[in-house]
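Database export, one record per block. Field names are fixed; values are copied verbatim from the stored entry.
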Amino acid sequence: MTEIEVPGPDPGWQPATQPPYYTGKNPALQYSLWEHSAPLFQMIGALALPVQPVAERLRLRVERSWDGLDGLDVVVFRLEGFTFAINKHDDHPLGYSYIWLTQPHEQADKALDTLLEAVGVGEDAIAFRGDAHDYRAERIAVGSPERVSGVPVRTSLWARFRRAIGMTSATR
């Protein structure tokens, strides 16, 4: 077989995973499996705990991925007819793990209750129900008394992008 040599990258090319996308000279754009599958899901709430204990309880394998913000842990799984994804960004300021369901889903509350029961935790594990970026979402105070119900978390770049292209909460 003839040996074929592939030349190295051009010196002016930015990494294919580096935003801002489509602005550099690299003709390739790489995105993660999470970025690829995320449009299939709509946020239904958040857990006030990391992904790992949930994964351990349900014997799931945590996958490392990334998006336009930073690295993240994610699990995608089915539970009693619901297809869930739970992800947590490495540098999330509040440490929440977002809970997602395949879209659209009118039974978000039932799905959250099913998840809580399977994981063996109570309602106190829920940081909020609804979309973190929807100011009308039902909020539940978690942790210290200084936290005020109804205060939204900081809107991420990824969330603003999702809203800009018309992706909205499954709980509306």
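Remark 1: Residues 66 and 72 are 5 Å apart (CA to CA).
Remark 2: The longest helix spans residues 108-119.
End of record.
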